[in-house]
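Hi V.,

You were right to ask for the full record rather than a summary. Here it is.
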Amino acid sequence: GFKTHFICAQGKNPGAKWKIFGNPSAISKEYDKELKGFVFVLEGNSLINKMKLPKETRQTLGLMQQFLTLQIFVPLGKDFSTELLITDFGNIKRRLYLSTVHKELSVSPLHAKIPLFMIKRKIWCNMCIDLVAFTREIFRGAVFRSLDGIIISANCKLRKIFTLKSKPQDTAEGDGTGGFPSTPCECLDVIPQTCQLNSDVPQVTQLLNLTKIHKPEIKFFLCYYLFILRVQGNIFSSKTQDVSHIAFGSKILGPPPSSNRRPNTKVSRKTLISRGVTLNVYFRGCLQRTVVGHEPPVPEIL
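Predicted structure:
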């Protein structure tokens, strides 16, 4: 299908079309030796240093293709954000705010804060955003019409921005499918030749949609389920492990004789607090390890 490549860092003054916010010295055009070409470099505070397209408020981009691709390099340990101004077929203007600062998805009728914890870092990434899916799923059935504005914030290197009619092949996951294989009838697009990075440059293509956003949550609840099974297994084994008892100073095989007294089922407050701390620490660790792609270990039960 037809591709729209609408901005890059090449030319005499590529920043003239952008409106610059924050410290001007924190946003520059530099020659990247690895890419053998020019890129925009945005550094510093991601809430302050940013660039907006189009430059004039009354202007709009009017881009209608489904997949927006940012060709970016995000360093380790730094925040990165992008804001997308979209219009639906109800002529309602909305804003998608994707950022590494956000910890969870937050939605209001006109705005959505979308976490970017899954973004690939320290490698050139074709970050492909499904505008149609985000608009429909976040704003309850709204139909995407056009992308009218875009804001890129620190910290990143930006080479090019372009749109695609169909999604590209996701190579960010180990199996090359992003964890969700394409159906036989699904049409995949190819990144335009003019936008492709040299083959010797380490790179990935990452497709972003709500499924990717919720993937760590699914893993978290799976961890919770496995943890409960482990707890139940330990309780069961502790009940059946010792089948002997002491009678008249000697160890006798078999369970002790039944008693009419009810067993003491109360657990001390200290034990409850201790177990609660263990659960809290475990689940926090579970979520953190899931986000970075590692499965959490099963904890020892107190």
